[in-house]
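Postdoc handover notes: sequence design on the structure in folder B. Input tokens:
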């Protein structure tokens, strides 16, 4: 494996890990009473993931398809993961805000996913596909950083993000 490819794979893997683990860091609370109540509730009943968290896990599954495709040079698997991302990014639950910056991040992600799919369809160079995936991953990281630092920090309601409807988002 070339040094460039190893670096790209390492950066992409690190980016995915950061994206998966952003949520636990964002939901930490300073309120000891709330933590105690959450611990009691967790013991009382099995914990079910929120719809938002389940959706995030679906995004991670699509990421894994793309990464596996890159590592095995399976262009069809890369296309499949990219297409899943594209489909998910058109869903109403993707849009957690109607804010102009959030829409800009989302559109940037969609452009990068389209480029990823197009590059994988050509099946000419795994390095070009890896670079398209790198761009896609960076757009994920930028958006997640923005959601953490702006939406969650401003709302002080970590998992209470409202999901924009199609009419609110202008789509």
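Designed sequence:
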């Amino acid at each position: 494996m070339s040094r460039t490819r190893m670096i790209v794979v390492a950066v992409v893997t690190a980016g995915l890990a950061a994206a998966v683990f952003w949520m636990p860091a964002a939901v930490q609370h300073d309120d000891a009473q709330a933590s105690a109540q959450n611990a009691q509730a967790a013991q009382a009943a099995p914990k079910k993931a929120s719809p938002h968290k389940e959706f995030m896990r679906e995004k991670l599954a699509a990421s894994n398809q793309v990464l596996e495709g890159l590592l095995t040079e399976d262009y069809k698997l890369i296309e499949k993961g990219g297409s899943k991302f594209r489909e998910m990014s058109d869903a109403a639950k993707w849009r957690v805000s109607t804010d102009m910056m959030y829409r800009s991040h989302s559109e940037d992600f969609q452009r990068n996913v389209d480029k990823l799919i197009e590059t994988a369809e050509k099946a000419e160079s795994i390095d070009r596909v890896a670079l398209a995936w790198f761009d896609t991953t960076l757009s994920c990281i930028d958006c997640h950083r923005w959601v953490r630092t702006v939406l969650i920090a401003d709302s002080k309601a970590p998992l209470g993000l409202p999901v924009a409807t199609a009419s609110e988002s202008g789509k």
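Context for whoever picks this up: The two ends are 43 Å apart (CA to CA). Don't rerun without checking with the PI first.
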